[in-house]
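Lab notebook, bench 4. Still working through the backlog of constructs that have no structural model yet. Next entry is a single chain of 77 residues. Request: give me the structure tokens for it.
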Amino acid sequence: MVPWLIASVFFVFLSIQAFADSLTGKVIKITDGDTLYVLDANYQEHKIRLAGIDAPERKQAYGLASRKHLASIVAGQ
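Model written out:
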């Protein structure tokens, strides 16, 4: 019975961690190709770093192009 209980708790823990929180708001600022800021309904600002994206920083080569591309994707969102 104990191994079954441990396996069940482990499975529940893994399934809970698989879900990401959702955030609804308006994009208010884009700092580079992988970082943006969202303003939620309570006027709280959230810094969002895009996972798995290795975009150049603003002062690096192609940094401005990377920022502009992200801006074109999230424009009006």
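Notes after review: The beta strands are 25-32, 35-40, 45-49. The mean pLDDT is 81. Flag for follow-up if needed.
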